[in-house]
Amino acid sequence: RQNITIIYKTTTAQKRKPDKKGQMDKQAYRNVTLRAYESRLCSLVDHCLDLSWTDILHPSYFWDKAHFREPVYRWINQDLLEVLTERPSLSFSARNHSIV
Asked: Which residues pair with 80 in a beta bridge?
């Protein structure tokens, strides 16, 4: 293997419609399945940029179904920079962002 560092970026969440009382909608099922798949991929690479926290963002942080408003992209960039510089990463909740 050459001197190549592999970073896997997990999939960001999409804006969800409110689910029906206690029912898992198709998007929620997809997220559970995708998270298990991506967890396995993350275990196979050098670094994992885990963006699963985007799944708990309040709908107001979305521009449309798939794009975020600021400051979400800044938070994602900060996570990437922490991975690239190999600094100990703060968990997203540890940053005291009010996201829900």
From this structure: none
